[in-house]
Amino acid sequence: MEHILGALLAPQRTMRTIGRERPLLPAAALWCLGSLSVCFALRGAAYWGVGAFDAVASWCPLPGLALRAILVVNPVFLLVFGWLLFIVCWLIRTAVLHLVAELLGGTGRALSLLAALGYARVPLILSAPLTVALAAAGGWSLATSWPGTVWRVGAVAVCGWTVGLLIVALQETHGLTTRKAVSVLLAIVAAVVLLHVLAWLGCVASGFHFADLLAVD
Predict the structure, then answer these.
(1) Nearest-angstrom CA–CA distance, 196 and 192
(2) pLDDT digit string, tens, across residues 178-197
(3) CA of 190: how far to CAs of 101, 164, 187, in Å?
(4) 63, 14, 15, 19: which is closest to 38 by C-alpha?
(5) pLDDT in tens, 36-46
(6) How far is the C-alpha of 73 from the C-alpha of 206, rounded, in Å?
(7) Top-confidence residue, 209 or 3
(8) Which of 121, 166, 164, 128 is nearest to 28 (CA)?
(9) Rounded mean pLDDT of 27-34?
C-alpha cells in the first residue's frame, strides 16, 4: 500500500525505490487490475452510450480490433483468462521500452522497469469505478450531456496521469533525463502510428471497414 500511495503522491522517490526493490508480484497484480479495469470501463462506456467507438475503428484499425475484442469477449472469460494476456503485454511492453531506453543511453535493468510499469498502472484502476459512478449519476446512461463529457475528460486525465508515471518510471529506473524519457515514448508512438497508417491504407485499398467490426449484436 505504501508503494501504491507513493506512486500517486511522490512518484519520483517511489519509482526509484521500486526499481531498487523490484516487487514483481505486487506489480503484476496492479498491472492486471489496471488492465481489467480499463476493459470493463470500455465495456460499460459502450453499453451506457458513449459514442466515438466507430470513429476509433474507422481511423485506427488496430486499436479498433482490440476494442472489438474487449466489447465482445465473455466477461467471465476475461476475468478468468484475461490476466494471461495482460502479463504477456506487460512483458512485451517492458522489453520494448527497455530496448529503446538503452539505445538512448539508459543504464537500468529490465526487471526494475518491469516492476515500475506495474505501479505506473495504478491510475487506470480508477477507470471502472469512475465509469460506473458517472453512469449511475446520469440515470445509468452516459449518452446525456454532462456524465458523458465528464467521462471523456476523466478518461483523458487518467491516461495522462498514467503516461506521466511511465515517464517517471523510465527516468528513475534507467537514469534518463525527462527529455530522453519522453523521446523513448515518442519513438514507440511513432512506430505504432506508422503501423496504424499502413493498416488504414490497407483497409482503404481493400474497401474493408473496420467500423463494421464494432457492430456488437
Answers:
(1) 6
(2) 999 999 999 988 887 887 77
(3) 15, 18, 5
(4) 63
(5) 999 899 888 88
(6) 27
(7) 3
(8) 121
(9) 95
Residues 6+ apart with CB under 8 A from 145: none
- Average pLDDT over the chain reads 85
C-alpha cell recorded at residue 122: 495504478
> For residue 125, what are the domain limits?
2-214
C-alpha cell at 1: 500500500
SS in 3 state form for the chain?
A: CHHHHHHHHCHHHHHHHHHHHCCHHHHHHHHHHHHHHHHHHHHHHHHCCCCCHHHHHHHCHHHHHHHHHHHHCCHHHHHHHHHHHHHHHHHHHHHHHHHHHHHCCCCCCHHHHHHHHHHHCHHHHHHHHHHHHHHHHCCCCCCCHHHHHHHHHHHHHHHHHHHHHHHHHHHHHHCCCHHHHHHHHHHHHHHHHHHHHHHHHHHHHHCCCHHHHHCCC
Residue type, 158: V
Residue 78: all three cell numbers together: 476475461
* Domain count of the fold of the chain: 1
Could you give the CA distance from residue 90 to residue 35 in angstroms, rounded to a whole number? 10
